[in-house]
Amino acid sequence: MIDLIQPWHLIVILFILLPITAIVIVPYWIIFKKAGFQPALSILMFVPLVNIVILYVVAFSRWKLAPRPEQ
I need a surface site. Which of 8, 40, 45, 47 has the fewest CB within 10 A? Predict the structure, then answer.
């Protein structure tokens, strides 16, 4: 029987998933930080159904806006 997953498959998947993970986490990290929530909540955006609940909590809660830095 032929092995379906070879070691090089894992390397290819790793090189594809890491950039996609960064592309998804970074914007949510910044949004949560600006809204006054813990930025680590952005990691939960990969968990199905939890991501929808978190988006609703963020959307309908009162944001603690940080003051703008002086330029």
Answer: 8
